[in-house]
């Protein structure tokens, strides 16, 4: 397995609270991605990073922010969690010039 | 309409059957075509990828790309119960360093003994 660790693996939080999910890689890959996976929608890109401090929005970025201060860490923050953000969140990484993306095990987030 | 369309299934087949999974897409600029397998409560894992049109074989799995029809397929020969999973197609542009995968919704496959 590619060296990708997501934490926490499960979280229950209340509406209106901020939440931060962490993705840590040991592969030194340049690109990191955050996706959410929901029934009927598949995997949708939230944000991605193409280097330290270099990030951009994806298809469903509203209500989310990201930061990447080190190559190995990519943080996803839900600024004020809503029930619509209940989902499974996946981090993925890929190397320069490669279409191969490797995924973490996912974080199951429930907003109540 | 999503850029990548994939029938969610479920597709139920008997063990030993040949399985055909398919995706269509709208963006003719896609250059790389991938297939991922996802077991329940796990992250997707890359099975194989193809560049541009043509076929690629890896064991019991064969990927086909028809760019003229904007249609890709994954064939699984001699299917096994362990193949039961969700299969996701994905595509990337592959130009200017843009390899961000765009995914289909995934097809749930059930192989029964």
Task: Kindly list the characteristics that best describe this protein.
heterodimer, A: 112 residues, mainly beta, four-stranded antiparallel beta sheet, 0% helix, B: 113 residues, five-stranded antiparallel beta sheet
Quickly describe the structure.
Chain A has strands at residues 4-7, 10-13, 19-25, 31-38, 42-51, 54-57, 64-70, 73-78, 87-94, 102-103, 107-111.
Q: How helix-rich are the residues of chain B, as a percent range? A: under 10%
Please report the distance between the alpha carbons of the first and last residues of chain B: 36 Å
Number of helices of chain A: 0
Count of DSSP E strands of chain B?
A: 11
Shape of chain A: globular
Rg of chain A? 13 Å
Task: Let me know the number of strands of chain A.
Answer: 11
Structure class of chain B? mainly beta
Shape of chain B: globular
Indicate the proportion of strand residues of chain A.
over 45%
| Beta fraction of chain B | over 45%
Q: By helix and strand content of chain A, what is the structural category?
A: mainly beta
Number of helices of chain B: 0
Mean pLDDT over the full residue set of chain B: 94
Q: Main beta sheet of chain B: strand number and arrangement? A: 6 strands, mixed
N-to-C series of helices and strands of chain B: EEEEEEEEEEE
Q: Could you describe the largest sheet of chain A, including whether it forms a barrel? A: 7 strands, mixed
Termini gap of chain A: 33 Å
* Assembly level: heterodimer
User: From N to C, what is the helix and strand string of chain A?
Assistant: EEEEEEEEEEE
Write down the Rg of chain B.
14 Å
Question: What this model shows, in words?
Answer:
The complex is a heterodimer of chains A (112) and B (113). Chain A is mostly beta strands and 112 residues long. Helices cover 0% and strands 58% of the residues of chain A. Chain A has strands at 4-7, 10-13, 19-25, 31-38, 42-51, 54-57, 64-70, 73-78, 87-94, 102-103, 107-111. In chain A, strands 2, 4, 5, 6, 9, 10 and 11 form a seven-stranded mixed beta sheet that branches. A four-stranded antiparallel beta sheet of chain A has the order 1-3-8-7, with no helix packed on it. Chain B has strands at residues 4-5, 11-14, 19-25, 32-38, 45-51, 54-58, 61-66, 71-76, 85-92, 102-103, 107-112. In chain B, strands 2, 4, 5, 9, 10 and 11 form a six-stranded mixed beta sheet that branches. In chain B, strand 6 (54-58) and strand 7 (61-66) form a beta hairpin.
